[in-house]
Design goal:
alpha/beta; Rossmann fold; 2 domains
Length: 215
């Protein structure tokens, strides 16, 4: 069946943001002597702000001043990459142009809250490519549950079986599989495990390869 829509994750798929967030967290961790922060950042990939907080507190303890550290990390991140300075992943504009040219609907489906998503898309000069933007604070259950992708399909008025989703995180691939959307993994910080490789319909090296796949 011809692809009617493509659903994009944002962090690690559209923007090269995840490695930047990890770098900023590592600076905060070095400053305060926090051990193992990189591993915990990886555990938070593809989750909402609330889930990330819960993961950190579960590991470091209820007394861990996560909110203060997170604000300091966020301030550092935005001082470096705010205002359109966040680098895009190679091939993303070419892929979006291809989809627009072929009248394929496009949605963003990110666990990040809407305020941040809309600002980053606007700053990156690519908001106009997206017919729908669905974020983690707009659905009852976040990835790995399928809600966000099902909502995206509903807003685009396409069946999940007619859609292709592009994800880099394990939770994202799990959510696509649960939604019945064709799952394309483009790894960023983590390569697929045996479980994830089995759930993904295809694993591709970059967005240029995704464009060729969709042809």
């Amino acid at each position: 069946m011809k692809t009617q829509a493509v659903l994009f994750d944002m962090d690690g798929v559209i923007f090269d943001s995840e490695i930047k967030v990890v770098e900023c967290w590592k600076e905060i961790a070095d400053k305060y002597g926090i051990e193992g922060i990189e591993e915990q950042c990886y555990a938070c990939l593809g989750t909402t702000r609330e889930m990330s907080r819960a993961i950190m507190l579960a590991h470091y303890g209820a007394e861990f001043p996560y909110d203060a550290y997170k604000k300091e990390m966020s301030d550092l991140f935005h001082s470096r990459y705010g205002g359109g300075r966040l680098p895009k992943k190679p091939g993303v504009v070419e892929l979006l142009e291809f989809l627009q040219m072929h009248n394929i609907k496009v949605a963003l489906a990110s666990s990040t809250r809407r305020e941040v998503v809309e600002q980053e898309l606007k700053d990156g000069g690519i908001r106009f490519y997206f017919d729908a933007v669905i974020c983690g604070d707009m659905v009852a259950r976040s990835k790995p549950e399928p809600d966000i992708f099902l909502r995206a399909c509903e807003e685009l008025q396409v069946s999940p079986s007619q859609a292709v989703g592009i994800e880099d995180s394990y939770n994202g691939i799990r959510a696509l599989a649960a939604a019945g959307v064709t799952a394309v993994m483009v790894p960023d910080l983590k390569q697929p495990t045996e479980e994830i490789a089995a759930l993904a319909d295809i694993v591709l090296p970059d967005l240029f390869a995704v464009k060729e796949y969709l042809k």
